[in-house]
Every structure is written in structure tokens, then in C-alpha cells.
Specification:
With 512 residues, the chain is of the alpha+beta class. Helices cover 46% and strands 16% of the residues.
Length: 512
């Protein structure tokens, strides 16, 4: 049927060409010869089309109906109203949304700067292999991936750490350690959307490379807590669960579980905050863990204090000493009351190797607020020499939800417009443009009314923008080189020389 349709299309095209040639009948022998050849080709085309139609037999009617149905669907799509919503799990940022986003990013950048971190960025489009080498937690199944025209497999980044590792590896021999870098990338994952979880989000990442001790994690936690304090959150509202994959590794070794079961066990244990303990226990058993080992493991991971942890792991356990050191450093930093020992936290990403942590809403309304940990062996995944590293990621959607719930979102409705400039008549528009340009050169934020409007509309517009002044360019004042300036706070009007308008506004603002 497809071949028949193609032949019919070819015949139609040839018929049109023949008609054109015949219309130019006086074009000579060449035209006549070409026309004769086209007649023969068209006859062959019609014969083949007839045979193809006959060969479809009883299915011809169904094929024709299907073609008609598809055409009707295509026509309906073209005439149906366009869906004006963004793709599921994504967002539009209208000006008021951008104001909030810029405020949040500004807070993140300020905290990163206070802690001595430098900003970096990387392409949102990376090679797919970067993420499927050692991702974990089904990230490879959540990729937005594609093949380009050259056959290369690409993906939109689901997280930033692999891109950072690639960048560090590319200049590993020339970079001066330690590195303290941060970024605010947009990330993409095809996953189920829930409150605070989207298919695209922005994420504040802070990472330290080249520091093997727990001091790196302590500094990172200091930055995360500093941010939460800066936006009005307290330790009574938000906590940070702290654990170490080393605890799980030591326990599994003591229980005789093979090393090759470690990664799979981490993935199952990571579900403890999402599923009942019995369900996780059954998953461990189904995964090949002996019953006694599964029971002992879950009991140990339920420990919430160091005394009990030392009893189980032994006072000389390196992992226990490392965790205790972190809590001591937290005391010195001043955020000890934010931390909670929770050994069930292992984080889903497969590249974590040591201490891990996760911010959480103490009311239990929201998913993890942020998370991170140590990943000392990531570079070897890409064929490089390993370098100690630790970092965290903070999603924008969940923190905005939390601040909204706590009533802590800032009032960003105040305008950044200093002056609205408009001309009373069209002939004065050039003068209004000169006034606006002069004010902008003087550092003032100006909204120039671009079309002829009534005075009433202009002042309503200025009120909506919450502008401080309206500069009226009127004929009588303009002839004298003056502008009528109205201060909207109290309605006071003053005629001010055009040349000194920016300076006058600055001085007037200082008086208020």
C-alpha cells in the first residue's frame, strides 16, 4: 500500500510536468522528445499502480480506510488548540518566577563565595557513556538520551558530578589542589513527578577535590547549614542525617557477605526511608543475603547513637572514629544540633565511597532537601587516577516548596524601576528618548513608554511597576529644557533640568 501511494504520487508529479511541457508546445523537438518519454513513463507508472492495488486484495479496503483515518487524525491535530502547558515535569519561568529563581541563586552564590568556592559550568548535553559507567539508582533508565546524526549516543545531564569528574580528569596534571568549586546546573531525569521532584530542576553543587580527610565534609556541611540559616530555617525544622558507607562495608564483611554484593545491598538499604523495614528485609533475602545477615544488618542500621554504634562495630573501628570526628568538627563550626546519626542513609548513587549525608524536613512533609558524600574512586571509572573528593547537591524545587510551607519566601514584588518616562504628545517622543537615555547613562533604571498613551494609563502603569518617579515630557517645559518629575510616594511635582535629572533623583533619594 505504501508503494502504491508512492507510485501514485510519482504519476501525479509526472502529469503536472507533462502539462507544463504541452503548454510550451512550440518549444521544439527537444520538448516533444521529452514529452514522448514522459508519456511512456506515465503509462508504466499507471500499470504498476494498478497491479499493486490489485495485489492488496481484500486488504485494500482496510488499507485505504487506515490511510484515511490517519489523514483525519493529522488534520485534527493541526486544527486542535495547541497545548500551552510546558512538557510534563518542566516549568515556565515568568518574570515573577525568575525573580524568585534569581534570588535563590544569589543566596547560593553568596554562601559559596563566603566559603571560598569558585563557580564553573559544563554542557547540558554530554556523551551517554559518562552516566552509564557508574551511575546507580536506575539513573541510566531515567536518562533523556538520543543519537545524533553522526551516530553518537548523547544524553541530557541527570546530575553534575560526572561532568565535573570529566573536567577534573582533563586537566588533572595542571590543576592546583585542593579544588573548591560550585555550580548551579539544570539537570534532567525522566522520573515520576511528585511534590518537590520534577523532570528538570536546577541544582546547587559544591565539591572539594584533593582533601582526603573528613574536614572536606565538615566544610561542605557548614556551607549547607549556612544557607539554611540565611533563608530563615532552623535546626528545629531541618536536620541532616549523617552516615558512612564504611559502616555497611564493615558489617557485611563481618557477616561474611561477599564484596560483590556491596553495591546491590546499598541500593536496597537506600529504600529504608521509602519502604517498611520488613519489605527491605525481604528484598535483601531475595537478593541472596542470608537470613541472619539480613536481620543483623537491619538491626545495626537502626542504631541512632555512638555508644550503641561502638558496641556493635568496636571502639577501634576507623569508621566510628571518623564519624565522631565529624561531629566534633560540627560542634566547632556551630552546627552540631543540625546533625543526626542515621546509618540507614547510604545514598543511591553508586560512586559514593565513604561518609554520606542527607538534609531532611523534620515534619516529614518533603523528600530529601539535599544530599551528598565522599566519592574518592570516581576518576578511575573514566580511566584516570583517583583523587579524593566530596560534594553535595541541593535541588531548587524542594527548597522552594519548603520555604513556601514555612512562610519564608521573600517579598520580591517591589519594583526595580526608578523612573517611568513618557511624552505628552507624539512630537516629543524623541525628547523623551533622550531623557530616558540620559537617565540610564546615569545608572537609573528606566521604563520608557514606547507608545502614545493617556496620562491616566501612564500613572496606573507606574503604580503597577512600583516605580519611584514619573518623568513627564511636556511641550512647555521641554522648550525650557525642563522635565516635570513627580515623586509617586507623596505626589510632589518638581520641574528639573534635563541635564541634571539623574543627579537630582539620586540626591532626592538620599533625603528620603
Amino acid at each position: 500500500a505504501a508503494r502504491a501511494r508512492a507510485m501514485l504520487l510519482l504519476c501525479t508529479s509526472m502529469a503536472a510536468l507533462m502539462a507544463a511541457l504541452q503548454a510550451r508546445g512550440a518549444a521544439g523537438l527537444a520538448c516533444g522528445t521529452a514529452s514522448g518519454r514522459l508519456h511512456k513513463t506515465a503509462h508504466t507508472c499507471r500499470t504498476l499502480t494498478t497491479r499493486l492495488s490489485a495485489s492488496t486484495g481484500s486488504t485494500g479496503g482496510r488499507t485505504s480506510a487506515a490511510v484515511t483515518q490517519n489523514a483525519e487524525k493529522d488534520a485534527a491535530k493541526r486544527t486542535a488548540p495547541m497545548d500551552l502547558n510546558p512538557p510534563r515535569g518542566t516549568r515556565d519561568f515568568y518574570p515573577e518566577d525568575m525573580a524568585l529563581r534569581n534570588w535563590l541563586f544569589g543566596q547560593w552564590r553568596r554562601i559559596a563565595s563566603l566559603h571560598g568556592f569558585e563557580e564553573y559550568d559544563a554542557p547540558v548535553l554530554e556523551t551517554e557513556d559518562l552516566y552509564i559507567r557508574k551511575a546507580g539508582e536506575d539513573v541510566s533508565q531515567q536518562l533523556y538520551n538520543m543519537e545524533d546524526r553522526s551516530g553518537r549516543r548523547l544524553a541530557l545531564r541527570p546530575e553534575m558530578t560526572p561532568s565535573l569528574a570529566r573536567m577534573v580528569l582533563a586537566r588533572q596534571k595542571s590543576l592546583t589542589l585542593p579544588l573548591k568549586w560550585f555550580s548551579i546546573p539544570q539537570c534532567w531525569r525522566y522520573e515520576r513527578t511528585t511534590r518537590g521532584r520534577r523532570r528538570e530542576h536546577y541544582q546547587w553543587n559544591m565539591d572539594v577535590w584533593g582533601v582526603g580527610g573528613i574536614q572536606a565534609e565538615a566544610e561542605l556541611l557548614s556551607a549547607s547549614v549556612s544557607f539554611m540559616r540565611s533563608v530563615g530555617l532552623t535546626s528545629a525544622e531541618v536536620g541532616v542525617k549523617v552516615s558512612s558507607r564504611g559502616v555497611l562495608a564493615e558489617l557485611l564483611t563481618k557477616l561474611g557477605v561477599p564484596d560483590d554484593r556491596f553495591a546491590a545491598t546499598c541500593v536496597l538499604v537506600d529504600k529504608l526511608d521509602k519502604l517498611p523495614a520488613d519489605a527491605v528485609r525481604q528484598s535483601l533475602l531475595d537478593g541472596g543475603l542470608p537470613e541472619e545477615a539480613a536481620t543483623t544488618l537491619l538491626e545495626a542500621l537502626a542504631v541512632k547513637d555512638f555508644d550503641e554504634l561502638r558496641r556493635i562495630m568496636g571502639a577501634d573501628s576507623p569508621v566510628v572514629r571518623e564519624l565522631e570526628h565529624l561531629f566534633d568538627l560540627a560542634e566547632a563550626y556551630g552546627y552540631r544540633d543540625w546533625l543526626v546519626l542515621d546509618l540507614s542513609v547510604v545514598r543511591g548513587l553508586a560512586y559514593y565511597t565513604g561518609l554520606v549525608f542527607e538534609g531532611f524536613d523534620r515534619s516529614g512533609e518533603l523528600r530529601a532537601i539535599f544530599g551528598g558524600g565522599r566519592y574518592d574512586k570516581l576518576l578511575s571509572t573514566f580511566g584516570g587516577e583517583n583523587l579524593p573528593a566530596a560534594g553535595f547537591g541541593y535541588g531548587d524545587a524542594v527548597i522552594v516548596e519548603l520555604l513556601k510551607e514555612k512562610g519564608l519566601l521573600p517579598d520580591l514584588s517591589s519594583s526595580e524601576i526608578d523612573v517611568v518616562v513618557f511624552a505628552m504628545q507624539e512630537s516629543l517622543q524623541s525628547t523623551a528618548v533622550s531623557v530616558a537615555s540620559s537617565l540610564r547613562r546615569g545608572g537609573k533604571r528606566v521604563d520608557l513608554v514606547l507608545e502614545q498613551r493617556k496620562t491616566k494609563w501612564v500613572f496606573k502603569h507606574a503604580d503597577r511597576l512600583k516605580a519611584r518617579y514619573v518623568a513627564v515630557v511636556a511641550e512647555s517645559e521641554a522648550e525650557k529644557g525642563l522635565v516635570r518629575l513627580k515623586r509617586l510616594a507623596d505626589g510632589e511635582q518638581t520641574d528639573v533640568p534635563m541635564e541634571g535629572l539623574a543627579e537630582y533623583i539620586s540626591a532626592d533619594g538620599d533625603k528620603q
